[in-house]
Design goal:
single chain, alpha/beta, two-stranded antiparallel ribbon, globular
Amino acid sequence: MRKLVLIAHVSLDGFVAGEGGSLAPFNPSPENLDFVCDITDGADAALMGRVSYEMLNTFWPTAWEKPNATASEIRYSKWYNAAQKIILSRTLPHSNTAQTSILSENIVEQVTAIKNQEGKSILLFGSPTSFRLLNNHDLVDQYLILVYPALFGKGVPLFVPGEPAKGLTVIETKQFTNGELAIHYKVNTGAA
């Protein structure tokens, strides 16, 4: 079975975005994208909600061809273009491209079926609403949380009260030059 791995950038107080979706306090360190690219090497699919998809899709498909693109941007852009994209949305029209699927109904069942297919890991980017739905059905196997040295005070939380308890084991941690901390957890199977 393929692993579903959440990749989320959060403030120290647990928000993936500030009020109105602002990402301004996030200031990724130069080595952040290299780290994420190492994770993408073990994945062949990206799963996300509509908002995350629209945000990623405005930049990454053509980032590799920009004259000032870094080696990491080129590497990530090429991975993004090759990856199967699975978007959870009730409002996006269905896609006609081979690399993009839009799931709007029976999401838990469809994601379970995708996890049961042959392939590498599936990366779930941001998308707190999609994450909570899949996490509450025990479909998320690992969390890669990138904690930024910033406080939002208000905004879009990654976790909300009332979610099921889960035991986690740390796989690895890494601190970046700007104080950002990557913590990679696996979900313990069985009782928390």
